[in-house]
């Protein structure tokens, strides 16, 4: 083994082990390797500036291999053991290596309680202090990104999000801590948390596993997740953004936020099914969080008398591109500051047991954990060995440019087009820790704004605009006026019915039953007024209890009004049917009290059903929501409307519908059976039948239309109210307008009543008509002959009567015996009887 020894001639020299890996092939998440030139240059650069500080009396001596070691755990472990046992004995390990080597170094150093300082390892696995008790990291760990993510989400009001993470422990731990960070606040919604392993990327067998990549994207689409957070390495990132391109989960409606990567142009390492342009199309606009390369306050001086601006200028002269070079510099500052504070520790580094002394073990690690200095990457202080540092929020902006190249040859000019990929990473914000170990979000010094694909930041969900869907004042006023007119019309008919109750036409149409029809119609008109009342008219304090009462009142009033009016109409139709469909109809009389009993039975059934409904399952007011999609896909209007509902409403409505439906069917049957009956004594039977047809038709229409408009209160109210007003008004007019006309024609009831007439319509053939005509002619001749005989008999009777009168008037009369010949019938062949009349006396 060949070791290089770099020493600083000062009063106290501290030997260190320096281990740096050549590359990091298995880890695309961080580029944790530093080239040999970078690690050597930064150490020389730092020690050079520290030499110039007169107040610092500590010299660092770093022992390392001339060449960086490969990323191999076995080799790294052996080298650690070899370097620990060399002379002088090292007191700490200073390393920038790949994750496998870093894990081996930290575990080995932990066995010896040797302080280990990493400046480039961000994995959350190294936060386990029970496994790595002597580990110090001068670079913020992955879990520190969670606070920056939270601030970013809050900045743009993204409270609903989904998380896709690589199904490995180093990626699941930050996700768990992120969820723990947000669980104490109620305004966050984690709509999806899905782990994906590399085994899930190959779905050639057609069987999707539980953590399938396609299943994850199906859930993103199904749950309509717009803000997608990612924790995965760069290899999986390429595959995920390829899938995002296929699912069209990018653009103005989506925002990806990932934990960034430190290797340059990682998107070009594309083994996936998509080409690079497709991956960049989906990646364009993605936000990423990375540790800040340099501190936010660029003019703050460090213990090496350097500012971040000066350090950045010097880096450009050193021509090093290592992203973590600033954290390596701060690691050297941290070790120098810690060793500077250890004044009384022995410095016999040739002694094999010197590093076992508590001064170099416990006190050193405690001093580092309590360190608070200024570095080129910002304020350097720790939380149990983990750096609390600045997190940069950046945006990846990719564009594909088509370039036309012109080639000249001897005979022709050749044009060749090819696409050039341009990707920029722009720093937008810096999450800066405060004195209270909290973070604030500050705009980056670049003064760049986020480039949105649309007019602004995407919504984290479909934006729901809640609007109250109420019956407008204008609509309610119009319906109230129409209902009031209907009530006035009903009252007018009631007054007419009372005034002319003794009129023959009114009396024969059962005026008391007509009053029931009017009462039911008034209740139906009143139900229209109740249907238009909602909580906005009642005020907030009493709205709920009052609306519950109104809910019940609507059903009771409309149902009772329907039962009374329809029951009265039904009973009148039943009476006409009972009289004219019975063999001895002329001998049958149905009084009004029987009709009242009939209506009372229907009313009692209605009361029982409504009371049972109200007691067992009362109607209450509920607020329901219906949604309407706008032209903007991200905006949906939620209409909040009130609905009277109960737990078993369909059952109760079905019971009432069956009960009243049977009545309407039977009533329609009676009306059809008596359609040809014209009764002057009961002069409104035809209009009653028309009323029944009207009730049946409009009731069915109202029920159907009301069902389909149940989520549109105003339209439902308008349609239902119009049908109720139309139905009730038609009933009133059909029943009472004919009576008004009859009374107007004969106000004093002087016209003679006519006999009941049942009109029948019979279809006959032509032969039957000729036969009937012949029969009619024969009958006419027969009747004319009979009429002539009757005339002769009448003449003979007149002669006889005159003789009798003369005999009676003659005072000197004598008893005569007269023989009178009287025909028994009007037939010309009738036999004559010969009664004998003895004159008086």
Automatic annotation (TrEMBL):
Keywords: G-protein coupled receptor, Glycoprotein, Membrane, Receptor, Transducer, Transmembrane, Transmembrane helix. PROSITE patterns: G_PROTEIN_RECEP_F3_4. Coiled coil: none annotated. One of its GO terms (cellular component) is G protein-coupled receptor heterodimeric complex. InterPro entries: ANF_lig-bd_rcpt (IPR001828), GPCR3_GABA-B (IPR002455), GPCR_3 (IPR000337), GPCR_3_C (IPR017978), Peripla_BP_I (IPR028082). SUPFAM superfamilies: Periplasmic binding protein-like I (SSF53822). Gene3D superfamilies: 3.40.50.2300. GO terms for biological process: gamma-aminobutyric acid signaling pathway. It is found in: Membrane. Pfam families: 7tm_3, ANF_receptor. Its main location: membrane. The chain crosses the membrane at residues 473-500, 512-533, 553-574, 595-616, 691-709, 716-737. Residues 550-747 form the G-protein coupled receptors family 3 profile domain. It comes from the Eukaryota. It is a multi-pass membrane protein. One of its GO terms (molecular function) is G protein-coupled GABA receptor activity. This is G-protein coupled receptors family 3 profile domain-containing protein. It comes from Rotaria socialis.
């Amino acid at each position: 083994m060949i070791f290089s020894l770099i020493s600083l001639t000062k009063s106290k020299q501290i030997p260190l082990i320096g281990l740096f890996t050549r590359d990091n092939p298995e880890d695309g998440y961080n580029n944790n390797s530093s080239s040999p030139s970078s690690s050597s240059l930064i150490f020389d650069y730092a020690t050079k500036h520290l030499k110039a500080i007169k107040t610092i009396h500590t010299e660092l001596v770093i022992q390392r291999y001339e060449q960086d070691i490969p990323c191999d755990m076995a080799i790294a472990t052996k080298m650690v053991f070899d370097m620990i046992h060399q002379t002088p004995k090292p007191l700490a390990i200073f390393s920038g290596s790949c994750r496998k080597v870093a894990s081996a170094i930290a575990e080995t150093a932990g066995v010896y309680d040797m302080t280990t300082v990493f400046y480039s390892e961000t994995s959350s696995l190294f936060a386990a202090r029970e496994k790595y008790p002597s580990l110090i990291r001068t670079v913020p760990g992955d879990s520190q990104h969670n606070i920056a993510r939270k601030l970013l989400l809050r900045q743009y009001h993204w409270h609903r999000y989904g998380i896709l993470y690589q199904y490995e422990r180093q990626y699941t731990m930050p996700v768990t801590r992120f969820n723990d960070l947000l669980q104490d606040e109620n305004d966050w919604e984690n709509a999806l948390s899905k782990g994906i392993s590399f085994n899930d990327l190959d779905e050639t067998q057609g069987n999707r596993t539980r953590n399938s990549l396609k299943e994850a994207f199906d859930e993103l689409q199904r749950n309509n997740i717009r803000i997608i957070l990612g924790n995965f390495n760069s290899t999986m990132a390429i595959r995920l953004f390829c899938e995002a391109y296929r699912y069209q989960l990018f653009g103005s409606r989506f925002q990806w936020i990932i934990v960034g990567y430190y290797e340059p142009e990682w998107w070009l390492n594309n083994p996936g099914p998509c080409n690079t342009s497709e991956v960049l199309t989906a990646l364009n606009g993605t936000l990423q969080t990375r540790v800040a390369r340099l501190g936010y306050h660029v003019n703050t001086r460090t213990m090496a008398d350097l500012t971040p601006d000066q350090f950045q200028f010097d880096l450009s002269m050193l021509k090093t591109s290592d992203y973590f070079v600033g954290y390596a510099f701060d690691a050297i500052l941290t070790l120098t500051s810690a060793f500077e504070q250890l004044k009384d520790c022995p410095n016999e580094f040739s002694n094999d047991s010197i590093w076992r002394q508590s001064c170099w073990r416990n006190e050193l690690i405690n001093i580092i954990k309590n360190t608070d200095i200024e570095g080129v990457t910002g304020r350097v202080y720790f939380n149990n060995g983990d750096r609390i540092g600045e997190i940069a929020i950046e945006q990846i902006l990719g564009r594909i440019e088509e370039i036309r190249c012109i080639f000249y040859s001897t005979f022709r000019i050749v044009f060749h087009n090819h696409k050039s990929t341009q990707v920029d990473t722009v720093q937008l914000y810096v999450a800066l820790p405060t004195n209270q170990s909290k973070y604030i979000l500050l705009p980056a010094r670049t003064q760049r704004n986020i480039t949105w694909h649309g007019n602004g930041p995407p919504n984290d969900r479909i934006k729901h605009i809640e609007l109250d869907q109420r019956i407008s004042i204008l609509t309610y006023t119009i319906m109230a006026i129409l209902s009031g007119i209907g009530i006035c019309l009903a009252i007018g008919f009631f007054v007419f019915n009372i005034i002319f109750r003794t009129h023959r036409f009114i009396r024969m149409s059962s005026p008391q039953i007509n009053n029931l029809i009017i009462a039911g119609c008034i209740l139906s008109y009143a139900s229209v007024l109740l249907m238009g009342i909602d909580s906005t008219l009642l005020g907030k304090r009493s709205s709920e209890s009052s609306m519950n009462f109104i809910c019940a009142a609507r059903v009771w009033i409309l149902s009772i009004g329907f039962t009374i009016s329809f029951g009265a109409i039904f009973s009148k139709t039943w009476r006409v049917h009972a009289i004219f469909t019975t063999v001895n109809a002329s001998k049958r009389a149905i009084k009004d009290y029987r009709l009242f009993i009939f209506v009372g039975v229907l009313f009692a059934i209605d009361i029982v059903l409504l009371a049972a409904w109200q007691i067992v399952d009362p109607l209450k007011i509920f607020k329901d929501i219906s949604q309407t999609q706008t032209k903007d896909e991200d905006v949906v209007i939620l209409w909040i409307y009130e609905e009277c509902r109960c737990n078993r409403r369909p059952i109760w409505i079905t019971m009432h519908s069956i009960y009243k439906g049977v009545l309407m069917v039977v009533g329609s049957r009676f009306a059809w059976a008596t359609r040809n009956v014209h009764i002057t004594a009961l002069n409104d039977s035809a209009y009653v039948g028309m009323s029944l047809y009207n009730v049946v038709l409009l009731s069915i229409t109202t029920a159907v239309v009301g069902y389909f408009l149940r989520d549109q209160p105003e339209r439902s109210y308008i349609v239902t109210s119009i049908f109720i007003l139309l139905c009730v008004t038609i009933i009133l007019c059909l029943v009472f307008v004919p009576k008004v006309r009859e009374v107007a024609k004969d106000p004093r009831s002087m016209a003679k009543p006519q006999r009941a007439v049942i009109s029948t319509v019979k279809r006959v053939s032509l032969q039957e008509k000729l036969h009937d005509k012949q029969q009619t002619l024969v009958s006419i001749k027969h009747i004319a002959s009979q009429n002539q005989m009757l005339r002769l008999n009448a003449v003979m009777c007149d002669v006889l009567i005159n003789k009798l009168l003369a005999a009676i008037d003659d005072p000197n009369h004598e008893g005569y015996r007269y023989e009178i010949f009287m025909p028994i019938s009007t037939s010309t062949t009738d036999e004559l009887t010969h009664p004998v009349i003895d004159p008086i006396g």
